[in-house]
Design a protein that fits this description.
CATH architecture of the domain at 583-714: Up-down Bundle
CATH topology of the domain at 583-714: Malate Synthase G, Chain: A, Domain 4
Pfam family, one: MS_N
Largest sheet: 8 strands, parallel, barrel
Main location: cytoplasm
Protein name: Malate synthase G
CATH superfamily of the domain at 583-714: Malate synthase, domain III
Structural class: alpha/beta
Cofactor: Mg(2+)
Strand order of the largest sheet: 3-12-17-20-21-22-23-24
Distance between the termini: 12 Å
Number of strands: 26
Strand content: 15-25%
Radius of gyration: 26 Å
CATH class of the domain at 583-714: Mainly Alpha
Subcellular location: Cytoplasm
């Protein structure tokens, strides 16, 4: 239980007050009294509206539940469904055409297409790794993953495996930055002469097919590098004949380094387990360290203490003799929490305050440290603060976010539009009214992003009373999903986001399946998305190759003329109708989802791990966070409601899968087994998420997870 101190009429947890006054504010012109008075006024003005908007969600869902219940078994009538949604204000009319008017932001956000990382900001090591993933070794990414067939032999350097990586990289260079004649695999020497790249092949020489692709050089002698540019992204050829890889290369090429994660989201939401003031302070402190540039993390690796810190910028001499300085780090966005949750880190009139309002005030204040820098490494060279706002339902909630950050700007003395917002298009009412949501944020929006998992969770919860939904894998091929993904891009292009902000796609969930990712994830730039989420720095480097192979700007120009995605398809829920499943199919789906839920929840509740690689029922590691949990819990809640499974079957599956999850975690000394008691907080939380899933607000998992995590922390 927190000890509270009084600040501007607020009861503030002691650890939060200490953080604000001893870490957050020193170095800023903003005093403690001004901060707390401003925060108190923010809460007084906006907390009532926050509560009203949440009440609207509940009222709409109650009316939807009643309408669907009354028509259950009558067959689906999509026209009547849409008429009803318009009647209750769920589907809104679209206004006249418009274009977003966001003031200039950094090119990594506005105009250059590339990979994006999402990491839990509570983990300093992960946070730093993501920030430093701006540049990555293509050779390493290929050598150490299944992107290449087979695996390295032995413990030392495997020259055969290395040759595979070198050959793959040469083929990539031939596509991204081809030579006028011949292949990069044949080059025996690269030099820059008279401002041009000259490559020697056999007895002759050649240049780049596009001479303007040469961007710069660094170093001299044998250890040097040549910088190339393609589709706005940089490729660094690193030479070192004394290195084993360079020694085996006829040109002395030791590595091909790619500009990889252009941007990274430091997450305060789905990938963290922050349930009290102490947790929030840890998240805020790491974000502050990133904004100040002084965050470090030390850890033991192989008996040696290693320290991570932010990478410096990189400088190159350009062909015309000037200096080119490129950021050494990804441009960072911070994902605040949504409108739903409250926090006891601050009490107003004895009541918890909206956590999203606290996030807005604290994370933007932390970013003032970056904004006041005038030279050297900075997060935003355009003087922007980038905030991603998740889980908003419709235009009114988007307008509330705009009002929130405008007020934060006024309180902190920032020009209007300094805070740029990312809109997560992951709730049904938002995707159905996406253009109007963008309109509500048109002066500060820089990012829209689809999220299949949360969006599916909300889809199931919205139509919970209509009937059983399709098996989870089949939902991915249902008509609404392609309409959702296409409609997001259509809305971004139609509202003028090209050159103003990112149109993004979701996470690659298999962090160890890089060969599959290389085949599949090029679909994201092909869809017109300028960014897409990846689970690791290595994945960012491999995904970066896709943005060289495909010109997203040209692809968007083609897509801008296509027919708009179908609203009828978007509004058609993935219901089974009169279809029946076999007992074996139902049993498999039950075990599959119970295992997934338990594998994630046991780490969240018992250890406070909000995002991790969780083995699935077949021991395949998958990236899991609260979004994956939401879809699995809502899916089983739906089948339980409609009698495809019984509570007895559910309990039997949970017990079986608890044994399997215990086995999968047997090597973790901090792990607390769920079997044979099946009565610990984690097991109970997993069961509650299913049994109570139909009554949870919008099907969100946070209320139950937070309650059970607090039980563990209190013990």
């Amino acid at each position: 239980m927190s000890h509270y101190v009084t600040r501007a009429g607020l009861q503030v947890a002691g650890e939060l007050a200490d953080f604000v006054e001893r870490q957050l504010l020193p170095g800023l012109s903003l005093g403690a009294d001004a901060f707390w008075q401003g925060f108190a006024s923010l809460l007084a003005d906006l907390a009532p509206e926050n509560r009203r908007l949440l009440a609207v969600r509940d009222q709409m869902q109650a009316r939807i539940d009643a309408w669907l219940t009354a028509r259950r078994g009558q067959g689906w009538d999509n026209a009547a469904w849409q008429d009803f949604l318009r009647e209750i204000g769920y589907l809104l009319p679209e206004g006249p055409e418009f274009s977003v008017a966001t003031t200039p932001s950094d090119p990594e956000i506005a105009s250059v297409a590339g990979a994006q990382l999402v990491v839990p900001v509570m983990n300093a090591r992960f946070a730093l790794n993501a920030a430093n993933a701006r540049w990555g070794s293509l050779y390493d990414a290929l050598y150490g993953t299944d992107a290449l067939p087979g695996a390295p032999a032995g413990k030392g350097y495997d020259a055969v495996r290395g040759a595979q990586a070198v050959a793959w990289a040469a083929g990539f260079l031939d596509q991204a930055v081809p030579l006028a004649t011949g292949s990069h695999a044949e080059v025996t020497e690269y030099v820059v002469q008279d401002g041009a790249l000259v490559a020697t092949l056999g007895a002759g020489s050649t240049g780049l097919a596009d001479p303007s692709a040469l961007a710069g050089m660094s170093g001299d002698g044998a250890q040097r590098s040549i910088l190339l540019r393609h589709n706005g992204l940089h490729i660094e050829l690193v030479f070192d004949p004394s290195h084993p890889v360079g020694a085996a290369s006829r040109s002395g090429l030791r590595d091909v380094v790619l500009e990889s994660a252009l941007t990274a989201i430091q997450d305060c939401e789905d990938s963290v387990a922050a349930v009290d003031a102490a947790d929030k302070v840890l998240a805020y402190a790491n974000w502050l360290g990133l904004m100040k540039g002084d965050l470090t993390e030390s850890f033991d690796k192989g008996g040696k203490v290693m320290t991570r810190r932010l990478n410096p910028d990189r400088s190159f001499a350009t062909p015309d003799g000037s200096t080119l300085t490129l950021p050494g780090r990804a441009v960072l966005l911070v994902r605040n929490v949504g409108h739903l949750m409250t926090t006891d880190a601050v009490l107003l009139d004895g009541q918890e305050v909206p956590e999203g309002l606290m996030d807005a005030m604290v994370t933007v204040t932390a970013a003032l440290h970056d904004l006041q820098k005038t030279d050297g490494p900075r997060n935003s060279r355009s003087g922007s603060v980038y905030v991603v706002k998740p889980k908003m339902h419709g235009p009114d909630e988007a307008a509330f976010a705009d009002r929130t950050y405008a007020m934060v700007e006024r309180l902190l003395g920032l020009p209007f539009g300094t805070v740029k917002l990312g809109l997560m298009d992951e709730e049904r009412r938002t995707s159905a009214n996406l253009r109007e949501c963008i309109r509500a944020l048109k002066d500060r929006i820089v990012f829209i992003n689809t999220g299949f998992l949360d969006r599916t969770g909300d889809e199931i919860h919205t139509v919970m009373q209509a009937g059983p939904v399709l098996p989870k894998a089949e939902i991915r091929t249902a008509p609404w999903l392609s309409a959702y993904e296409d409609g997001n891009v259509d809305a971004g292009l139609a509202t003028g986001m090209r050159g103003k902000g990112q149109i993004g796609k979701g996470m690659w969930a298999k962090p160890d399946a890089m060969a599959e990712m290389l085949t599949a994830k090029i679909g994201h730039p092909q869809s017109g998305a300028t960014t897409a989420w990846v689970p690791s720095p290595t994945a960012a480097t491999l995904h970066a190759t896709h943005y060289h192979l495909l010109d997203v700007a040209a692809r968007q120009a083609d897509l801008a003329t296509r027919a708009r995605a179908s609203l009828d398809a978007l509004m058609t829920p993935p219901l089974m109708g009169r279809r029946n499943l076999s007992a074996e199919q139902i049993a498999y789906e039950l075990d599959l989802n119970c295992q997934s839920i338990l594998g994630y929840v046991v780490r969240w509740v018992d250890q406070g791990v909000g995002c991790s690689k969780v083995p699935d029922i077949d021991d395949v590691a998958l990236m899991e966070d609260r979004a994956t949990l939401r879809i699995s819990a809502q899916f089983l809640a739906n089948w339980l409601m409609h009698g495809l499974i019984t509570e007895t079957q559910l309990d039997e599956s949970l017990r079986r899968m608890a044994v399997a999850v215990d086995r999968q975690n047997a090597g973790d000394p901090a792990y607390c087994p769920m079997a044979p008691g099946y009565d610990g907080p984690a097991f109970q939380a997993a069961r509650d998420l299913i049994v109570q899933g139909a009554t949870q607000p919008s099907g969100y998992t946070e209320p139950l997870l937070h309650a059970w995590r607090r039980v563990v922390k209190a013990a």
